[in-house]
Design brief:
Blueprint (H helix, E strand, L loop, with lengths): L2 H12 L5 H8 L3 H13 L19 E9 L4 H12 L4 E6 L6 E7 L2 H12 L4 E8 L16
Antiparallel strand pairs: 1-3, 1-4, 2-3
Helix pairs in contact: 2-3
Amino acid sequence: MDNTDIQILTLLQDNGRLSNVELAEQIHLSASPCLRRVKQLETLGVIKSYKASLERTKVGLSMTVFIEVRLNNHTGDASDAFEQSVASLPNVISAYLVSGYADYRLEIVSRDLVDYEGILKTIQSLPYVKDIHSNFAIRAIKSDAPLPLKKS
């Protein structure tokens, strides 16, 4: 990736709805080469998708909970079964295999405590779950930030 690619990615992270013409103008490139570069970045998997960023509270998801999960078995089959189950849960918006006390850290969104209790019961019933520790987010300081791309 060169500096032009970095400029394209930086602008698209900020506004994925930029038209190709607007994008080309901002990076001082003609439309056709700009489109070729964007398509190449998509083909390479650098650009994964284009999405709308939603305000959670305005769509009724006022709670964010980070939970740490420990498994009672650390075989590949146990991890695979847990990960496949978690990937299918719509209220789990991010999931990471982590080091330290927990095996996984999940980000959960819910409408309220009653909704979260149902989600928690579902996660507790997943294969190989040993412990769950919940941390309730009080307020988001920074979320959905663009990736810090550096120019070469």
